[in-house]
Amino acid sequence: MQSTEDGYVHISQSVAILVDGNNMERSIHSETDKPNTMLNFDTLVPKLLGNRGLNRLIYFREGKQISSKLKERLHSNYHGSVRPCHKSADIPLSIKATQLANKVDTIIIMSGDSDFVELVRHLKAEGVRVEIASVPATTSRLLTGEADYVHEITSNDWFTLEPKKKVPHKKSTHAKKQEPSTKSGTG
Question: Are 134 and 31 contacting, i.e. CB atoms less than 8 angstroms apart?
């Protein structure tokens, strides 16, 4: 922090946001009962950062089926990356958090998974501020009890894509007009 002549305090804190994609997707899907509900990173990231600077944004997701649109959006808007994980995101996310501990002031873990309790304890022991961002209904109280701060992810932080409706094919309006029959009655 720096104090200026005008009396304002300027915070120059570096933040890494690490997303457990599968946990976040399951959480918002359980809240909405809609599988096409997604996090709105355009509103969520600024909310999480406040007036701090973003150092890294990494989205960890189990499996190889990762939306190319999500990859592109995270990269172009936040220089973020998407990391496919062999099984769960827990171990890769924990390794990356440990690697970043001496490079950032704060790590925000987007997950409600109690598997991260020991990671939070370790990072705090290393002097890193640890924040959790999660959907309250699916978040472990053990995890939130260890965090320095908890951001609640609510319906304001996600959106639902409506399935594309199939447009029925219209019949041609240029149908042939039938000519009246001109049969002559000769016989």
Answer: no
pLDDT at 162: 78
Residue ranges making up the domain that contains 94: 9-158
In Å, how far from its chain's centre is CA 137? 17
Chain centroid offset of residue 15 CA? 16
Task: Say if 167 falls within a structural domain.
Answer: no
* pLDDT tops 80 at residue 175: no
DSSP string, 92-158: HHHHHHHHHTTT-SEEEEE---GGGHHHHHHHHHTT-EEEEEE-GGG--HHHHHHSSEEEEP-GGGE
d(C-alpha 97, C-alpha 108), whole Å: 9
**Residue 112 domain-assigned?**
yes
Q: pLDDT (tens digit, 9 = 90+) per residue, 108-163?
A: 999 999 999 999 999 999 999 999 999 999 999 999 999 999 999 999 999 988 77
Q: Is residue 182 part of a domain?
A: no
